[in-house]
Amino acid sequence: MDDHQVVREGLRFVLEQEPDIEVIGEAADGRAALQAIRDLTPDVILLDMMMPVLDGSGVLNMLRHAESSPAVVVLTSYPGEDAAIATVRAGALSYLPKSSAIDRVIGAVRAAAAGGSVLEPGVTAALVSQLRELEGAGPLGRLSARERDVLAELSRGRSNREIARALLLGEQTVKSYVSSILTKLDLKDRTQAAIFGLQQGVVPLGEALRSDE
Asked: Domains in the chain, start-ordered, CATH in brackets?
């Protein structure tokens, strides 16, 4: 899936030379890519992040919410560790610059078909580092910094309106954060979230008790 016809034709030609790889379709923009994926149900897709109508990030986001989706190998003109990590977190198995040797691209396609990944060494190291940080942070590591702020306010017993005022947020935004917190921590309601926050020490227990006075 790439908006440059020459790139698509070149990849198609090379991949079709491999006896175990069959190219069943292509698309020039993200929306057309999603339609092709629905119609053709490929096992693996090669995805460019810079496409018209809907970019690669948008395609990955839509695929995350699909009942079933192909393995994704990203080929990009803009390599970088931060972008690669965000893309892998969004669901891609491999992230390669377009300057990669064709054997590496073919290897990534085969790996993706088997559920494996091909990443640049720096990206792999950065992902491992982030994983270790999350493990060290415990359950709170699943939350963004802003979600932890909202959790702290929940632990103080504050309403959505009070949280919005304290954190200078819209009330609807607070509701979205609360919903995200419950989902990420597998909690049923805001009361459980408040108790969890106290257990994790996001606010001192004495401070939470004083807020109820």
From this structure: 5-130 (3.40.50.2300), 143-211 (1.10.10.10)
